[in-house]
Amino acid sequence: MHIGRHIVQELVLEFGAPGIERWAVPLPESEYRHFEAEVARGRAHDVRLLIVKDGQAALTTPTDHENALTLPSGAIHPEESFVDGATREALAHTGLSVVVVDYILQVHASLELDGEAVKWVSHVMLAHPKKGSTSTQPEGVAPEHIVWLDGPSIGERARKLLDDLDEGTLRYQARLLDRVSSLF
Asked: The pTM is what?
C-alpha cells in the first residue's frame, strides 16, 4: 500500500497519465489467500514492464504453465523510487538494464472469491533496453524462460490462453498481455 497517490502523481508528472481500467478478477482460493496475505503485509500493487526493442517485447514464461507468457513484474520496495524498483525488476527477470519511458496502463483489479474481494493495482510501464545492454541471464532464470515477440504474436498467444482459462492469476496476466499487445 506504500504506492500511494503521491507516488502515482509523480509518475503522471514525469510520464503522463496512463490508461486507467477496472477489472473484476475471479481467483481460486489458494491464489486469493496469497493476495490477501500480501495486502495484509502492506503490499497491494505490482509493476509490470513492457520492455520493447526493435518492435518486439521481452516476456517471461512461468514454470507452472508451459503456454503462458507474462510481462516481467514485481514489487516496488518502500525504500526505493518507483522507477528504481521497476528497473531492478527488469534486470532481475530479464537481465536487461532498461530505461523507463512511459506509464501506459494502471489496472485496478478486484481480486474475488465467493463474494470477498482484495483490491490490487498493476502499474504497466513501457521501457527500452539501455543502449548497449544485452541480456545477461539473471540468476535463477533459464534462457528458455525469456522470449521476444511482436505485438500481434503476443495478442494471439494471450487470447489463446484466455480461451483456456476461466480464472486465476494466469488469466489476469494473459488479459494484461492482450491489452498491451497493441500499445507498441
From this structure: 0.92
State which H helix or E strand residue 129 sits in. Answer: strand 116-129
pLDDT over threshold 70, residue 141: no
CATH of the domain at 141: 3.90.79.10
Q: Of all residues in the chain, what percent carry a pLDDT higher than 70?
A: 91
Domains: count for the chain:
1
CA distance 49 to 98: 10
Q: Report how far residue 56's alpha carbon sits from residue 147's, in angstroms, rounded to the nearest whole number.
A: 9
Residue 123 belongs to domain spanning:
5-180
Residues 6+ apart with CB under 8 A from 78: 2
Classify 63 as helix, strand or coil. coil
Rounded CA-CA distance 44/53 in Å is 30
User: Is residue 100 over pLDDT 80?
Assistant: yes
What one-letter code names the amino acid at 8? V
Contacts of 18 (CB under 8 A, 6+ apart): 12, 103, 104, 105, 106, 123, 124
Assess contact for 58 and 146: CB atoms under 8 A.
yes
